[in-house]
Amino acid sequence: MKLKPFLTSFTEAGCDEAGRGCLAGPVVAAAVILPKGYKNLKLDDSKKISEKNRNELRIDIEKNAIAIGIGIVEERKIEKINILQASLFAMHLAIKNLAVKPSHLAIDGNKFNPYPKIDHTCIIKGDGKYMNIAAASIIAKTKRDEIMKKLSISFPEYLWNQNKGYPTKKHKNAIYEFGITKHHRKSFKLT
Predict the structure, then answer these.
(1) pTM score above 0.90
(2) Element containing residue 106 per DSSP (H, E)
(3) Which run of H or E residues covers position 30?
């Protein structure tokens, strides 16, 4: 499916997050401002793309984007404020970390806490509709996968290099066998 370029102006940032449904690891958000005329026919919602293609797209997005911001919220903060608020806070961090201030925010999903002095529009399944949200989806997912692969080196029994902290059967079995780590979200149903 061909994605639409922008919702409003070319200084619009697309925003998305990754890791909301995981049992372990941080939630990571990205905000991406793409240049006018940017095209990549492979670009789509990160959940619909293979890991290899996501990594190739990340390189292309990083090379061509006007600005990219990343926001990371660790497990302890997720426990304090809940996963929804942590996801929205991560998006705010990503927007704050943009080198260029956008004139508008295109947010994936149906919830967002307004960002000071920047209008926003929430788009359900926006990562499959607009290029800048899809680009944010790719950046957030690949950054989070990178973090989970690094954490997996110290905790190989949980197979985070494969499951990235999602609640797979092997991950749940490892929790049952070895217990939880400091990277697990204790307020989630872990087994």
Answers:
(1) yes
(2) strand 104-108
(3) strand 27-33
Whether residue 166 lies inside any domain: the answer is: no
Count the residues in the chain. Answer: 191
Q: Which residues neighbour 30 within 8 Å (Cβ) at sequence distance 6 or greater?
A: 15, 16, 17, 68, 69, 70, 71, 94, 135, 136, 137, 138, 139, 140, 143
Amino acid at 184: H
Domain that holds residue 81: 12-149
First to last CA, the chain: 37
Domain assignment present for residue 22? The answer is yes
Q: What CATH number does the domain containing 75 carry?
A: 3.30.420.10
User: What confidence tens digit (pLDDT) does each residue in 97-137 have?
Assistant: 999 999 999 999 999 999 999 999 999 999 999 999 999 99
On the CB side of 55, CA atoms within 13 Å amount to: 5
Task: Report if residue 143 sits inside a domain.
Answer: yes
Amino acid identity at 94: A
Q: Residue 5 carries which side chain, given as an amino acid letter?
A: P
Q: Is residue 175 part of a domain?
A: no
User: Measured between alpha carbons, how far is residue 138 from residues 44, 121, 186 in Å?
Assistant: 8, 20, 27
Give the number of domains in the chain.
1
Structure tokens at 22: 């995981």
**DSSP secondary-structure letter at 42?**
T
Q: What are the tens digits of pLDDT across the range 61-79?
A: 999 999 999 999 999 999 9
